[in-house]
Amino acid sequence: MNPDAPIFDVIILGAGATGLSAAKELAKKNKSLLILEAHSRIGGRVATCPNGIELGPEFIHGSPPKLYKQLKIRFERVPDVHVVAFKEPDFVVWIKNSRYWDPLDRILKHPPKKQTDYSFMPYFSRMEQASDFEKKIISSYIEGFIAADPQKVSARNVYDTLKSEASKKAYWPSTGYENILKKIFSRIIRKGMIRLNTPVKKILWNKNFVEVKANDQSFFSKKVINTLPVGVLKSKQVKFVPQILQLRNALSSVEMGQIIKIIFKLRKSKWKKWMKEQLPKNESFAFIHVFNSPICVFWLRNTEKQLDLIAWVGHLEAKKMKNYSKAKIVQYVSRETAKVFEIPFKEWKYYIQQISFHHWDGDPFIKGAYAYFKPNGDKKLRLLNKKGISHKLYFAGEAFAEDRAGTVDGAIQSGKEIAKIVLKSF
Ligand SMILES: Cc1cc2nc3c(=O)[nH]c(=O)nc-3n(C[C@H](O)[C@H](O)[C@H](O)COP(=O)(O)OP(=O)(O)OC[C@H]3O[C@@H](n4cnc5c(N)ncnc54)[C@H](O)[C@@H]3O)c2cc1C
Predict the structure, then answer these.
(1) Atom of ligand 1 nearest to the CA of 396
(2) pLDDT at res. 26
(3) What is the pTM of this model?
(4) What is the DSSP letter of 399?
(5) Rounded distance, CA 95 to CA 87, Å?
(6) Does pLDDT of 20 surpass 60?
(7) Confidence check: pLDDT of 66 > 60
(8) Residue 273 binned pLDDT confidence (cut-offs 50, 70, 90)
(9) What fold, for 74-100+168-174+260-359?
(10) Closest Cα to residue 423, out of 16, 34, 30?
(11) Are the beta carbons of 281 and 275 closer than 8 angstroms?
(12) Ligand 1: which of 408, 412, 416, 417 to mutate, judged by most atoms within 8 Å of the beta carbon?
């Protein structure tokens, strides 16, 4: 170790919602900090384009957290209007469905036992008889919303996610998700504690200090908070020396869910004409859940400036496209979208002004959308989160959140919690 090298109190790996949130709490207590971030920007999965399009998260599920309200962030309520579309080989049937939540509500009536956890499917088959239609809604929710494999995901994971959404309310932050982060963490961002373009490769640790290697440089600290996504931790592209068996064990019960989200900015006039012809009763919709299509759900976002149609491919279908190039994904999803709306593909381009897409699975510093748990996976991860390793290494992030795992507010909360744990350990 270079005797002149500074030793920070804490090095934080990753400048997503979790890392920034932990940094804010530690900075309040005057801890010396360094945040190392692989990308050329902060925010991680929070990625708002200059025209307001959200490549990553866009909804606040349930009531907005108090913190957002205190910061006077404006929201728009997402209309809770659902349509189900059955795509048959030659036609598509659309049914307005005011009972979309019913089969999901039934899961809430059967809470899994607190002590044991099991995979969702057997738990589900023990429930009162569900119709094929209800089963389709439930599978589509698991693959689409939870971004999980219904055969592997734990019953508690499904139950907890549904419970956190029980109000069925959702909001769009009016000025974009990235602005929320910038507003909450402006002091941290201004203080110059963040090093961008610095992908961490190795973490050497012993009972005295931690050495973090990135860009052929070494950084030293008393403690490290790791907020790298589960997909990155599982890929082993970041090495811990010595290895951490508890981490390997915990990661074996958690998977990174895959999602493909493509945003079509629509030509308003063309789209409105289509709506008038297809939905003669002047009906509208917010969400269209599609059966028999690789795209499990679409939704519309209509603002003063633009009208976006978002195509969302759930976990299992997204996994099938794992080795597709970006261009092939966009082409394939565009074709399938045109089919659902029964628009000849050669005409589809006239409906579209712009297509936006970020390949989260192909992003080497994210490697997926958000995590889901196999049975008891949540407990193992949270144990690691609460105890840390030898008072030196700590883990946090959306997957480690006690509440609202897989969300931005869950990540912010996880950052706050880990900061408390680390502060106590000094
Ligand atoms: C398509 C999509 C849609 C979503 N929709 C919603 C939604 O509507 N609502 C909602 O609440 N949530 C949603 N989410 C989930 C939400 O985005 C995440 O839960 C949250 O942003 C995770 O924050 P985090 O800080 O834990 O992780 P991240 O934001 O992933 O931060 C981790 C950081 O670590 C960095 N990193 C990785 N490897 C290295 C390395 N080797 N060295 C240094 N840095 C590294 C990454 O670049 C990243 O900046 C969505 C996610 C996706 C992908």
Answers:
(1) 26
(2) 96
(3) 0.95
(4) G
(5) 11
(6) yes
(7) yes
(8) confident
(9) Polyamine Oxidase; Chain A, domain 2 (3.90.660)
(10) 30
(11) no
(12) 408
